[in-house]
Amino acid sequence: MRRLINWQPSSVGAVILGALPFVLLLVVYMVASDIRQSENPNDKLLPPLSAFAEAMDRMAVQHDPRSGDILLWADTVASLRRLAIGLGFATIIGFVFGIATGLLPYAGRMFSPLIGVLSMVPPMALLPILFIVFGLGELSKIVLIVIGVAPFMMRDLAMRVKELPPEQLIKAQTLGASTWQIIVRIVAPQVMPRLLDAVRLSLGPAWLFLIAAEAIAATEGLGYRIFLVRRYLAMDIILPYVAWITVLAFLSDYLLQTIQRRAFVWFQPERNSE
Amino acid sequence: MTAISIKNLYKDYNNSAVLRDINIDISGQEFCVIVGASGCGKSTFLRMLLSEITPTGGKIQIDGLPIATEPGPDRGVVYQRYSVFPHMTVLENVMLGPSLARSAFLGRLFGKARRLIHEEAMRYLQAVGLEHACNLYPASLSGGMQQRLAIAQALIMKPKVLLLDEPFGALDPGTRKDMHDLILRLWKENQMMIFMVTHDLQEGFLLGTRVLVFDKIASLNTERDKPGATITYDIPLTHRRKQ
To answer: Which residues of A touch B100 (CB under 8 A)?
Structure first.
């Protein structure tokens, strides 16, 4: 009898194995939905798949009679816009402060304690303050995302900078590099792919803060919509929306990963050797 | 030619002596090899010559002037590892030094200036036998090729002094022998002084024109003083200079 750790699935078997839990979940849902529907045809908790199709036809294909928009697209555009602006600002802040505090001892001594304390503040606890200061509009939602992920990015980038071998910085100086030249030619290009890693890791928290802010005060957005229709127990809308958010999160992660692989060819063997 | 004069140099770490009473004068095209057991301050000495660390006391003078407080282009270095930049191709690595000198803001050159540096860099790559690999990234080079690249990258700055910190320590014996021939050739072709740290005595006597042996000495003062190391033997191998 071979040991369990030596059992390898074939390539086809691996695909089947991976798909199996998804199929099982779907079957369990369909059976449970069917049982509830047979007891009460008006049950809202576990609607049949046909109800999802009808709801999505209403949300994603037809124009809303009141606003004239196609709601799913309007919500998606609004949410992705907030997410992109928030993550964009957080990334820029993380990049600048990460390099400054990681490379310059004076900047590190001055800002690292502050960043350390800021990263301990629960961002959601700041949301009321943001609503008071920035109002209920777009700004407070974007600022929540920035406050939520920028401290992590700053600390992560500073650590990545400090991980660069000190020999590299000495070598650069023997080649006549100034501090600025070391930043633009040695440090920044090398932390760029690592920055993309930090952005990927921040996607989850960024979505969390976005949906939380939208749930509390918004007039459109994916998070706004699912919390709005919750009042009518509209599981036929909520579940496809959740699936759609998951797809968007997955795609944005995949996109960042692809950019990293294509744009930083030197980084892959480097990472594998670590 | 360059002259280095070191007087009463010493270095402490956390109140325990690492190096003591280093006094030495070196001038001309000397190939100084620094040998000694681990923990004898060989690398500490090299790093002081590089201005990577500052001495606790004493003087280092280069051509009559106190040594600069920071590393600079007059002293090149090749470490055992991490001497080249992984995000640049072989050619970009060699072009880096001259590009930095000519472009303060971007550190990059374009057009005619770039072509001139390109040609110069290719000459240095030819000298170390890497011209065919000029578009590869360092990660796809062997250990020996990476060290050749590091040497070319340092030499294009035409340093007065080249500092080598166990540069061949991680290479297999065959590659090591090729590297010995290469470094001797480059040393003769370029007017420079070389300091090389190695723990391989044979390598030291094979390459050097002067071998400095570092060793710990018994404490001169009190019993609680940990002994520091110093140069216990200074062996000139003058026959090589006449070759």
So the answer is: 175-178, 181, 185
The first and second tokens of residue A260, run together, are 């990293």
Centroid of chain to Cα A253 = 7
The radius of gyration of chain A's CA atoms, rounded to the nearest angstrom, is 24
Say yes or no for a CB contact (<8 Å) between A165 and B157. Answer: no
Alpha-carbon distance of A224 to A238, in angstroms, equals 11
Quickly list H helices, chain B. Answer: 42-49, 90-102, 111-127, 143-155, 173-189, 201-207, 239-242
CB contacts < 8 A, A to B, total 82
Question: Angle, nearest 10°, between helix axes A138-163 and A188-216?
Answer: 150
ipTM comes to: 0.91
Question: What CA–CA distance (Å, rounded) separates B151 from B140?
Answer: 17
Q: Residue A92, Cβ neighbours under 10 Å: how many?
A: 13
The alpha-carbon gap from B56 to the nearest alpha carbon of chain A, in Å, equals: 20
Give the containing element (helix H, strand E) for A38.
helix A11-39
What's the number of CA atoms in the CB half-sphere (13 Å) around residue A2?
5
Task: Please give the pLDDT value at position B242.
Answer: 45
pLDDT in tens, A186-229: 999 999 999 999 999 999 999 999 999 999 888 899 999 999 98
pTM over 0.80: yes
Q: Do the chains contact at B108 and A185, CB–CB below 8 Å?
A: yes
Which residues on chain A place their C-beta less than 8 Å from a C-beta of chain B?
165, 167-168, 170-178, 180-181, 184-186, 189-190, 264-267, 269-270, 273
**Are the beta carbons of B83 and A167 separated by less than 8 Å?**
yes
Tens-digit pLDDT profile for residues A48-65:
888 889 888 888 888 888
The Cα–Cα gap between B91 and B136 comes to: 8
